[in-house]
Design goal:
alpha+beta, eight-stranded antiparallel beta sheet
Length: about 600
């Protein structure tokens, strides 16, 4: 008799405790021996995930509980990685919806729950972080129910089971004043409320939802068997996304056991598996019976809303850091990424540049950060919103902006959002903090996060998600200040920076290499200014007590990759190399810029 199976996906807003909860399930399922150490947020195995404390790639494990195999899928919580969530929800039969006991349902909670309800998945709601001092479980329960009603859940979905949990302390319970000693009530709820996968008899059907890669065996397709039994011995048909058919055979077949994979001869209907041996397998492809090839419905992914132009690095420091610097390298790497990430689009725009479209600045900056760590050099232009035309009118993407801020900074936050065409739709008070919601154009969000953090002394929690396309809202002022631009090439001199400190906030420290056209500081006025960063103090044989003064140079304001991408104007680029992130003008010499502005005016 085949083993019973449950397939569950854990969904929530970013930082509501998904990966920590999976850690506790792993611990209590005793997947590690007593003498083995287990690191925190085990499934966040990628370096970038560990550094940023967020899940970027969805991953799955399996645990055995009461003789039932439970496949657990950990999903990203950030809206920019919504493409990952949409794909992997196709693998599940039910979802564990995590909601923070203090914050309640947030923008991404709504997005992922909407997708789960669309797929008719059975939800189990978990109010997590009950140990927080400002936890309000009863209020959150009502808010979650209101969200289900708003998303038009059916009667069966509205009758969701509710659990209270502290992932950090390792307990879950169906009542607030329970014994609080283990995760077993959660596992019992999964077996009781999440349905077993439907067993469809007939010719085999399997669809690939994600791609893994191994240097020894090449591409590995990960997906679920929707019908029949998948076997390594039978001849199969590979149906691509474009509908073309090709006869194929599987070399190796794996199922998920604990944290690893176990090689098997066959996989029953409803189980998740990884297949090896099809070199060009892609997301959305189907593996079916050779005699009766029948494709499954394609995986639908929401369209990208933001694009950036990636081009070859043509600065004077070209090729000093990077290993891969040509347009051929850039093209190959970007096209390779589109195979792994279906929410990404790449178009060649002529010359050495490529238009890359994604879900948001974070989505694209994670790709850039990954590429620079691999040894790529490139230049990236200002993020551009993707407009559409409907009935002859220009439309732009609108997002729901959710800001949690202390009371004293609420006025500043509302004023800032207003300057970016944000319209306030709701405001809630809880404790000494306010939760304010706006509808705002995606264009208005570019560079807004850092301004919000400055205005709220670092206290604001800013999140957003795509809502819909609406008529164009008109011009939005992006950056008020001009920049200071380096006049020559060479190391920045402390004496020069000391003399220019009154004119702006510097992005470079003394001794840092600069070149003509590189942006070195933000100007205090609204126009650009070319400055000499290599100016040294003239040495004379005259010395007097009043001539020498101690230089006090403020530390440079070093911008992260996302901050630099959001900061630059339309005529500027971010130069990205494995060791440096520099901002520069597209036209490096002052004469070129003047000539271009005269042509523009005429």
């Amino acid at each position: 008799m085949a083993q019973e199976i449950r397939n569950i996906a854990i969904i929530a807003h970013v930082d509501h405790g998904k990966t920590t909860l999976v850690d506790e399930i792993i611990k209590q399922a005793e997947l590690f021996r007593d003498n083995e150490d287990m690191q925190e947020c085990l499934l966040d195995s990628n370096d970038l995930e560990r550094e940023r404390g967020i899940t970027i790639l969805s991953k799955n494990i399996s645990v055995n509980y009461k003789g039932v195999k439970v496949n657990v899928i950990d999903t990203p919580g950030h809206s920019d990685f919504g493409g990952q969530v949409e794909r992997v929800l196709n693998l599940a039969d039910g979802v564990l919806l995590l909601v923070d006991a203090a914050e309640g349902p947030m923008p991404q909670t709504r997005f992922v729950l909407d997708k789960a309800l669309e797929l008719d998945l059975k939800p189990v709601v978990i109010i997590n972080k009950i140990d927080k001092p400002d936890a309000r479980p009863d209020v959150i329960h009502d808010l979650v129910f209101d969200l289900f009603v708003e998303l038009e859940a059916n009667d069966d979905q509205l009758d969701f089971p509710m659990l209270y949990c502290s992932g950090k302390d390792g307990w879950a319970d169906t009542v607030l004043d329970g014994p609080r000693d283990s995760m077993l009530p959660l596992m019992d709820a999964v077996l009781e409320h999440i349905p077993a996968p439907k067993v469809n008899e007939g010719p085999v059907q399997m669809q690939v939802t994600s791609i893994d890669y191994n240097d020894y065996v090449g591409r590995i397709g990960v997906g679920r068997v929707y019908r029949g039994t998948l076997n390594t011995k039978q001849p199969l048909m590979h149906i691509r996304r474009d509908g073309t058919l090709e006869q194929t055979r599987i070399k190796k077949l794996f199922t998920f056991e604990g944290l690893g994979r176990n090689e098997v001869e066959e996989v029953p209907c409803g189980d998740l598996c990884a297949i090896v041996g099809i070199p060009d397998i892609d997301i959305g492809d189907c593996i079916t019976d050779f005699e009766t090839p029948e494709s499954l419905p394609p995986i639908h992914i929401d369209e990208p809303t933001l694009s950036m132009t990636f081009s070859v690095n043509d600065s004077p420091f070209y090729g000093q850091d990077g290993k891969y610097v040509t347009s051929r390298h850039l093209r190959e790497r970007l096209l390779k990424e589109t195979e792994r990430d279906v929410a990404l689009r790449v178009e060649e725009t002529g010359g050495d540049s490529f238009r890359v479209s994604g879900r948001g600045v974070l989505h694209l900056s994670i790709l850039i950060e990954t590429m620079r760590r691999e040894g790529f050099e490139m230049s990236v232009a200002q993020p551009q919103v993707i407009f559409k035309e409907k009935h002859g009118k220009k439309e732009e993407p609108i997002e729901i902006l959710h800001i949690d801020v202390p009371d004293e900074f609420a006025g500043k936050v509302i004023e800032l959002a207003g300057t970016r065409k944000g319209e306030m739709v709701d405001m809630d008070q809880h404790g000494l903090r306010k939760t304010i919601r706006f509808q705002i154009p995606t264009r208005g969000l570019i560079g807004l996060r850092s301004r919000m953090l400055t205005a709220s002394a670092g206290e604001a929690i800013v999140t957003h998600r795509f809502l819909q396309y609406e008529p164009h809202k008109g011009a939005i002022q992006q950056r008020n200040n001009g920049v200071l631009i380096s006049q020559g090439k060479g190391a920045a001199v402390a004496f020069a920076i000391d003399g220019l400190q009154q004119r702006g906030i510097f992005f470079v420290n003394p001794g840092e290499e600069c070149y003509e056209g590189m942006i070195v500081a933000e100007h205090c006025l609204d126009k650009d200014l070319v400055v000499n960063m290599q100016k040294a103090k003239q040495l004379t044989n005259v010395r007097a007590s009043g001539t020498d003064r101690a230089m006090k140079i403020a530390p440079a304001q070093v911008k992260s990759l996302e901050e630099a991408l959001e900061y630059i104007a339309a005529d500027e680029l971010v130069e990205i190399t494995p060791h440096n992130i520099r901002m520069r003008k597209k036209m490096l010499t002052e004469n070129e810029r003047k000539r271009f502005s005269r042509q523009k005016e005429s």
